[in-house]
Amino acid sequence: MVSLDRVQHDAEVANGVLVVRASGAAAAKAALTGSPPGRAPESIQLLMRCPVHRSLPEDTHVFGDCSLHVLPVGAVMLTVPEARLSTGFSDLRPLMFQPVEVSAGLRNAFSGAVGHVIAARDVLDPAGVAHHLLGLAELVLRSALREKLRRADIATEHRRAALAHIRAHLGEPSLTPGHVAKALNISLRRLYQVFEGEQNVAERIRTMRIERAKALLADPAKAGRGVGEISRDCGFVSATHFSRAFRALVGQPPTEYRRHALPR
């Protein structure tokens, strides 16, 4: 299990998001690397910063094999046994060990259910509460997973559309990330999020321009065209700028690349 100090630290930054963790270092490594977990973790922990009534005691409340821990920073951690979830550990990997945005409605449903359980804990049957909390965990996990996958699908479509637009307009010097975002009718911030974890949009445009230039320089049918003309066809405003960018990416100037690439 993770330490309470670590949980409290996470709760301070997990404003408006859900954090899902699993017990055991092996499970954490499997979730982060995508490798097989070997064996499933004993428990799944759902940590969410949500409005909790001040009257709720900051303590751990155990109900059978499930528990609720109310933190002093306005967050709640729900722990349920992994074996009792219909959504397996491997299915939950897209949610694990990262902040996942959740809707206000889902946060309110979670905090409301938690608040009612803890407020009436003295008169509720622990085994019945455990079933209730397990259902709550299922609801939150499935809803968050569906939203995560939906966003991933949208991001994939945006990425595909962005690359298609870039390819179609590589020869235009005015092509910038801002123009791409406008063409896709999304914000510039959202466009950069779509390419998060890889080359950013500006770098991708530059790389694709150089790749097109390499193809043109190595094409015998284009041997009669000057390097400056090819640079303009690839959207560079000047031959000097093109030569500098080409050398930085390829490791040699375009004239030398062409000399080695063209058949003798």
TrEMBL record:
InterPro entries, per database record: Homeodomain-like_sf (IPR009057), HTH_AraC (IPR018060), HTH_AraC-typ_CS (IPR018062), Tscrpt_reg_AraC-type_HTH (IPR020449)
Entry keyword Ribonucleoprotein: no
Alphabetized Pfam families for the sequence: HTH_18
Gene Ontology MF terms: DNA-binding transcription factor activity; sequence-specific DNA binding
tRNA processing in keyword set: no
Domain HTH araC/xylS-type: 160-260
Keywords, in A-Z order: DNA-binding, Transcription, Transcription regulation
Domain of life: Bacteria
Protein name in UniProt: AraC-type DNA-binding protein
Species annotation: Lentzea xinjiangensis
